[in-house]
Batch of 4 targets.
Target 1
Amino acid sequence: MLLGAMLLTLAFSSHAGMLYQWTDDNGQVHFSDQPPARPHHVRPYASLTSSPSLYDASSSSTEQPAPALTPPKSVTLTLVSPNDGATLRSNPGELSVTATVSPLSIPAEQTRLVLDGQPVASPPTSSLNASQRQLDWRLAPIDRGTHQIQVQYLESGKVIASSSIHHVYLHRAHVNQRHRRQD
């Protein structure tokens, strides 16, 4: 939140038309309307104004800057099902997870499901409705017991947004469980 406010403040105050972000040798993150004097990996952001950029790609920097990006939009992830605290019964150990993400421009490939703190390797199936994208995962076999589920949106390998964590309880018939006799 603070980062977003800082980016907007610098973008509005920038007369150069670009906003630059880089990390120095001490790990300190810098934002400026001017590129750094020393060579660094720089992430430029396009300004909200239409003024031309003063950054010259042929400057003394040894690395070429990344393409201009607009500041990140607000991403909303919501776990739709299963509900938090749900008790699920599935003898084969199947678990279906549905989530929504908005805005529509967020690609499904940049989202991942996290089950019990570990990313799930299978990608979601995706469908669109009027204002959001629906993501579905079908998982099996899942062991019985308590599980934590969360959906995350990633950008350049970093978690940008995440849903709330849902706890679900999966029940499966035990192999050694006695069966009722039909009298």
Target 2
Amino acid sequence: MIDYLEGKAYVGEFIQSHASEPLFAPTPALHETVIGAVRTRGDDGLEQARSDLGWVEPVSLTVDGAAEAARIDSELHSAGEPIGPLDTLIAGVVREAGGTVVTRDEHFERVDDLDVALIGSR
């Protein structure tokens, strides 16, 4: 979503190619996106992010999603490959919901039983 707000063409192409499908975002991913918008552009960035992300259906962080994130955190720390707290929450929400993470961040592929679609490049 950050790349979408920055106008990256590959994100627009992905959204257009999936126009007939609802697109969801875990609330931790929305939080991460809005933080970036506020840090770089202040209140104007916040308002732009709110209006530009109206097409996204939020998926809330629930107790089950938080528990799944805790499992993921434990799995990745045991393997010596943690991915960071917000991305762990994102992975937990998506894995618990049975969804797919669409991202350019390859580290999500380290999460077992998480469907990941890589787009763009890092």
Target 3
Amino acid sequence: MDSVIFERRYRLRFYSNQTWTFKAQFIQTGAEKICGMLGITVHFPSLKETEQAFLQGLIPEYVMVRCELKNIHGQTLADGVGARSLKQDYGDINKSLKMAEKSAHIDSVLRLAGLSEVFTQDLEI
């Protein structure tokens, strides 16, 4: 596989039956490439609510974003969720929002293609 689709870092997972497996980490450029090849558009329906909360001066501790993948007919094919703590980004709302969007997009593509057996979204080393 092309290194654009996944990073060449792996997570080692130990299962109870004494076997070890490796998973490549799926990254945003891979999600974008898959959506582009399949003609799928990316939508973030929860952004309007988040924007209204920020405009009203409500600053949450966490930002949560939903991503929907739609075909050319507007049918939702898959969805995913991403969340981020503002503390994690030292109160930078823009960065937290972008990272939550990125996580939601990757989550939705992993669900769409059933890739969670091969790839991981989060690398815990």
Target 4
Amino acid sequence: MTEAFKQPHYFQERIARQPHLGVLFVAEHTDDTATRVAGAAFLRMLPAEEWELREHLRNVPILSHLQVAPQRRRQGVASAIMDAAEDYARAKGRARIALGVTLTNAAARRLYANRQYVEWDFGPVNAMVVEWDEAGRKHFGVERCQIMVKALPAPATAGFGKRPQMRLVLA
């Protein structure tokens, strides 16, 4: 798992910090030869690092680092991961969930809007970004992001509808 998306240090750190910091959701797909990672996302349950989020989204979990393997895109993987993260947050008593999306990622913004995420009223923020170099050293930066928030209604009783053929696991 930690080799997925060529970011082993990110995933190793997130796995090591579970469940205190949050939960890593992983979608796996099994084909004829092997089980592979189809996508992943991290749901941060502790207060955000950015002061704007701590101030305006107190006690709201933040979904971050949502990634889908290129060969699995547009197959419902991101939606399945988001469903699982939203269900988890709801089960923990949270009424809302939030995420940040870069200002240039129009496709992701459309996905989130279609899932009833709305842009918050406070404008873009400088989100903290953590990256690792090839030697495993951590580097910090910022990325301008639009924050989107979704109200988490009570779960529907009719079921979840069509989901891709994959298994979601908590790493």
